[in-house]
Write a structure and sequence with these properties.
Strand content: 15-25%
Number of strands: 12
Number of helices: 11
Distance between the termini: 42 Å
CATH class of the largest domain: Alpha Beta
Number of domains: 2
Shape: globular
Strand order of the largest sheet: 1-2-4-3
Largest sheet: 4 strands, antiparallel
Helix content: 25-40%
CATH topology of the largest domain: NADH Oxidase
Radius of gyration: 23 Å
CATH architecture of the largest domain: 3-Layer(aba) Sandwich
């Protein structure tokens, strides 16, 4: 049953206006409460947000991810970090003994901010998301937000830290499936035996404003996915020809450096326009984690482009 639910799970960013029933919210909270934690510390707090104005403020605190404001429910997962005198750093020092001295020397506030291992809200949040899905409620996990701002909005005391936002609601429309990597590419038995895969960079030219909008939306679609069914990309040896032919003299551009091995949508090498060259095309939205670097891509004084150093 759990695997069947996971097969249905999608990240939902467009929601119906109808509220999530209180019974569903309580079931989600109960799933979180029953979740395991290290040493049975149960260090979490679960903030339930249904006030539209407050949710809008959370969207702004999440670096202007405006889609969050349309959700009828946000659960803010919070934690109480373990104090140093109770061995807060022990587990990390034991996991990384070669860094033990550096871990011990870290400023307390910085250690708490960086050490998500001790925050322990991810298991509880995952259980909540599955419980919601069982009732037809979709969700999206949001980790990118300004922690101090969210803490202030929620009037949290200094010892409670907001760690994740679980944005929930009934999907406004069906959400497409994103392909998952095959199990053989992820699992290994006993000892890891890497399959040698040469690095493959895909490059994509985009207006900076379009890329910034994609960051807020959580996915990149470009200007051709809807019309042509794919996102145009180039190989490093191809991109300058494209830039100098199609974008000559155009300012305000960035060059997305995409790790092909991290792209979840299908990639096809095609010569769609009979140019004699096969270009890589991404057949679906581009997941942002595949964009490993973003380079400024400005023309020279004569309008031509130069290839910046790749990662």
């Amino acid at each position: 049953m759990i695997v069947e639910l996971l097969q249905q799970r999608r990240s939902v960013r467009e929601f119906e206006a109808r509220p999530v029933p209180q019974a569903v919210i309580e079931a989600m909270l109960e799933a979180g409460r029953l979740s395991p934690s290290g040493g049975n510390e149960q260090p979490w707090r679960f903030g339930v947000m249904t006030d539209r104005a407050l949710i809008g403020q959370l969207a702004e605190a999440a670096y202007h991810q405006h889609w969050i404001a349309s959700a009828p429910l946000v659960i803010v997962l919070c934690t109480t970090p373990v104090a140093d005198e109770r061995g807060a750093r022990d587990i990390q020092q034991q996991r990384f003994p070669h860094h033990a001295a550096a871990i011990a020397a870290l400023d307390r506030a910085l250690y708490v901010a960086l050490n998500q291992e001790e925050h322990q809200t991810k298991i509880a949040g995952a259980h909540m998301a599955l419980t919601a899905l069982e009732q037809g409620v979709g969700s999206t996990w949001v980790s990118r937000f300004e922690v101090a701002t969210v803490a202030r909005l929620l009037n949290l005391p200094a010892h409670i830290l907001p760690t994740e936002l679980l944005v929930c609601g009934y999907p406004a429309q069906p959400t497409p499936t994103h392909p998952k990597k095959p199990l053989g590419a992820l699992a290994f038995r006993e000892r890891f035996a890497p399959k040698e895969q040469p690095q493959r960079w895909l490059l994509h030219i985009a207006p900076r404003v379009v890329w910034e909008a994609a960051q807020a939306a959580g996915v990149y679609r470009g200007d051709t996915l809807a019309a042509e069914g794919f996102i145009h990309c180039s190989l490093p040896e191809q991109v300058l020809g494209v830039a100098n032919e199609r974008y000559r003299g155009q300012a305000g551009l960035v060059l997305l450096c995409i790790d092909a091995h991290l792209v979840t949508a299908p990639i096809r090498d095609e010569d769609c326009y009979e140019t004699g060259q096969r270009f890589p095309h991404i057949y679906g939205p581009l997941n942002l984690e595949a964009v490993v670097a973003v380079k400024e891509f400005q023309p020279a004084t004569d309008g031509s482009f130069r290839l910046p150093p790749l990662p």
